[in-house]
Amino acid sequence: MKKxxxxxxxxxxxxLCIVCPAAYAETEDALAIQSKSVLLMELESGTxxxxxxxxxxxxxxxxxxxxTLLLIFEALERGDIxxxxxxxVTEHAASMGGSQCFFEAGEEQTVxxxxxxIEVASGNDAAVAMAEHLxxxxxxxxxxxxxxxxxxxxxxxxxxxxxGLEVETHLTSARDIAIMSRQLLLYHPDILTYSTIWxxxxxxxxxxxxxxxxxxxxxxxLNLYTGANGLKTGYTSQAKYCMSATxxxxxxxxxxxxxxxxxxxxxxSEAMKLLDYGFAQCRPYVDTEVVPEDLQISVQNGTCKSVTxxxxxxxxxxxxxxxxxxxxxxxxxxxNLKAPIQEGDAVGVxxxxxNGTCISEVILYADRSVPKLDLKYSLSEIAGRxxxxx
Length: 390
What we know:
Blueprint lengths: L1 H27 L8 E6 L5 E5 L12 H14 L7 E3 L2 H4 L13 E3 H9 L4 H12 L2 H14 L22 H14 L3 H5 L3 E8 L2 E8 L11 E9 L3 E10 L2 E10 L2 H18 E6 L8 E3 L7 E3 L6 E6 L6 E7 L12 E9 L2 E9 L9 H15 L1
Antiparallel strand pairs: 1-2, 1-9, 3-4, 5-6, 7-8, 8-9, 10-13, 11-12, 14-15, 15-16
Helix pairs in contact: 2-5, 2-7, 4-5, 5-6
């Protein structure tokens, strides 16, 4: 009898050892993704909704240009360059193979047209021309790319060029592509002005005269998925088909990174599958009255005891697998606020929490200035009261 019980237990253990891994694998990859590596991220919070081999270092092909574009837009924001600045194409930039806009050495284009060429036509020559314009050489620009990657926490990335041409050590991961894509979209949404262009053109200006060059968006996903608005595709024979696909629906923006897909059709279908899954998990939470109209924040040592805050009309939060009823809102005034307070100074925060974790904040700013209470002001107040009493 004991032998039978022991045999039964051993049989059950063996069955569990066989079944459990399969069941786990099915749960882990419920979407049955074929591509080597994928990651799905919600833009606002940076929450990862789905991943597969997301930290594996792979060849990114032209998705590399997301970092190139990020550095361009950051330079524009700092005022280092302007959209109407002239970029001179060098022999090195003109010599780039792969996808290109066929610039000639010595040709001049504006920064704005170069951005179009990078984002719309995936021009390797345009990417390298901008790299040299910003840093003096492509090598110096690549150093900046790697430095920025470290600053952003991209732990599985090493860039060797500005455009994504094949180099054995030019590698990144799906997670890192999502990180730099989020940085570009979140802080430089003007990229969408370029990433959604379907057809455009530039004018080549060479010694032989002027000629029009048509630009057709390499990202055909834009016309395949409702709400698609970017961001960058890539392909080489070794990298296979890659993409950082972005889409927005009902105020929710998602980033779906696909790397190492065997075909363009697999890349597109799996990006769709990821985005469909994400939009099913996310919903917008809209607060139409962020602060009460007459909210007062206490101020010490001021000519007034409190200050009103600038009105905030609306605040939207993307909820990931969260019921809106779980959201708790709290207005928190900064402690020990002392005059002088200048109009526009931060005086408090509205905090939105879920299960005790802060998921979003709105900074509150003073609607007017509050001077410091001093002897001169006090004497004038006393004199004013005496005069009024008379």
